Amino acid sequence: MSELLSSALRGDRRALARSITLLEAGHLATMAGLATLQVRRLHQPGSPQVVGITGPPGAGKSSFVDRLIQHGRALGQRVAVVAVDPSSPFSGGAILGDRVRMDRHADDPGVYIRSLSARGAAGGLSRAAGQVVDLLDAVGFDLVLVETVGVGQGELAVMEVADSVLVVLTPESGDTVQTMKAGLLEVADVFCVNKADRPGSEGLCRDLELSVHLDDRPGWTAPVFTAVAIQDRGVDEVLGALRRHREWLMGEGLAFWKHRRAEGRVHACLELVAETARHRAMKKLAGGLGDRLRAGELRAEQVACLLEEP
Fold first, then answer.
1. DSSP 173
2. Global pTM?
3. What are phi and psi of 266, to 5 degrees?
4. How many helices (H) and strands (E) does the chain have?
5. Which letter, b or e, does each residue of 164-177 get, where b requires 16 or more Cβ atoms within 10 Å of its Cβ?
6. What strands, in cross-sheet order, belong to the sheet with 111-117?
7. For the segment 139-194, what is each residue's pLDDT rounded down to a tens digit?
8. Residue 223: phi, psi to the nearest 5?
9. Which CATH superfamily is domain 39-252 in?
10. CA 60 – CA 102 distance, rounded (Å)
């Protein structure tokens, strides 16, 4: 294990931040060091509780995370937040601004907030998000909150990283058909219609309650709640449902949890392989092959075949 990771385990925040940066960059030695750490959540759920928060932009995910931090700290829990922000497809940069809504926790030594750039990864999470969660697990946090990009559709990666997934919607999010198209019915362990003081919230709740029964998950039906997170209304009920889901996973739902985590490990491996292959291809395209592709002398299919050659 590297000295940097050892320092992070001893509570050094700078070493933790630097380790996460190296994991984001795909630093092989840091990833190898991570594989040697004692991850409590490797074979069974429990500690830490990892909650994913997803939903469309503007649903109030960050405000909800802020309230979850507050409630976790009231219980004496050490809380970590991994907030994934979208990256520009042109510059590759990201604002990393979700932490602004959680600023009141910045001076709390029991709270650690880290923003990650999605770096173009599909699924609503950064490629390194799962590795970062494992590191936060090893460091000893009690509650880890993972907030996704919030692009609306295809945010399925969070279910492979988190134990429980909270889907936050608003009356303006669209009807349940859109929710089903986004795959959120299969992803959600708990639904919350936030900003429930707005018109249309009751109708959306009714539709969701009818739709959740279409999910064939054995033993657990996702409950539907309303809340106004910015006013801390309805948050307790959501937290209660997340606690019940955690208990279900530790008992009757353990086989379900193990299957989802197993699939998550396979997906994480494939993501690493794909990223390595992409970087290798980009290096080859930096030469004359890339120039011929840009000039139209070669088609993409031809170049792809050439890149496969040793």
1. G
2. 0.84
3. -65, -45
4. 13, 7
5. bbbbbbbbebeebe
6. 111-117, 79-85, 143-147, 49-54, 164-169, 190-193, 224-226
7. 999 999 999 876 544 456 788 889 999 999 888 766 555 655 556 777 889 999 99
8. -75, 155
9. P-loop containing nucleotide triphosphate hydrolases (3.40.50.300)
10. 12
